[in-house]
Amino acid sequence: MVAALVTVAFTALARWVRGVSRTGAVAGAVVCFLLYLGAGPGAFLALVSVFALTWITTHLGYQQKQKLGTAEKEEGRTASQVLANLGVAAVCAGVYAVGARPALLLAIAAALSEAAADTVSSELGQATSQKAWLITTWEEVAAGTDGGVSVAGTLAGVAAAAVVSAVCALSGLVLWSRFGITLTAAIVGMFADSFLGAWLERRQVLNNDAVNFLGTLVAAAGAVAMQFLA
Question: Cys bridge to 117: 15, 147, 190, 192, which one at CB 3.0-4.6 A?
Fold first, then answer.
């Protein structure tokens, strides 16, 4: 019941501020419910931090992004975008609810941290610069190019990952001693996202949603791997 009430309230807020479209709100509601029911309030607070960082940076330099042709639609992110960024964390929460394995909590934290890192790095990079560098060849490209990275965007992405990982630790979702694991895994996932964008998305082998999904998957898998190796 608590999970359902929290989901309704959060979804209504996200839709009201136009953070998500109608379909995005439905997908977001499913994600929110699974995270809260499966992993508890800590996962929900991490989700809120991801949403807040995403919403703020999406609206920063919006006119600049419109000129670049990379601005998000005014009605908010769609269901496919929501699931691409949050689907891995939601599935991990659902699996955790069935069989409580601590490593899955790390996977959730890392996936959410990567989702924030990827979005913030992209949005802030486009808002602050008109150029970037392709991660595979380091040639100069226009900001917003698939696989393009910038210093400002990368640093902002790392900071966003650190914020979400800290929220996960402060809320008790993961131990503080595992903060470094979730942060490192999120950063690895962020760079994997950029690499896949430059390598496969530019060739139209994958679309942006698929690349984002794989970035969070790399982060989640990386966190689990580091946990077992620690």
Answer: 190
Phi first, then psi: give them for residue 142, nearest 5 degrees. -70, 145
Weakly modelled stretches of the chain, pLDDT under 70: 62, 64-73, 230
Residue 229 CB contacts under 8 Å (≥ 6 apart), including other chains: none
Beta 140-142 vs 148-149: how paired, if at all? unpaired
Count: domains in the chain: 1
Distance of CA 194 to the CA centre of its chain: 13
For residue 8, the enclosing domain spans 2-229
Task: Fill in the DSSP letter of residue 142.
Answer: E
In contact, 226 and 185? CB cutoff 8 Å = yes
φ, ψ of residue 58 in degrees (nearest 5): -65, -35
Write out pLDDT tens, residues 77-136: 899 999 999 999 999 999 999 987 889 999 999 999 999 999 999 988 888 887 889 999
Q: What is the CA radius of gyration of the chain?
A: 16
Q: Please, is 5 exposed, middle or buried when counting C-beta atoms within 10 Å of its C-beta (0-12, 13-18, 19+)? A: exposed
Neighbouring residues of 115: CB distance < 8 A, sequence distance ≥ 6: 50, 54, 85, 86, 89, 212, 216
For residue 54, give the nearest of 94, 114, 95, 102 by alpha carbon. Answer: 114
Cα 9 to its chain centre, rounded Å, is: 21
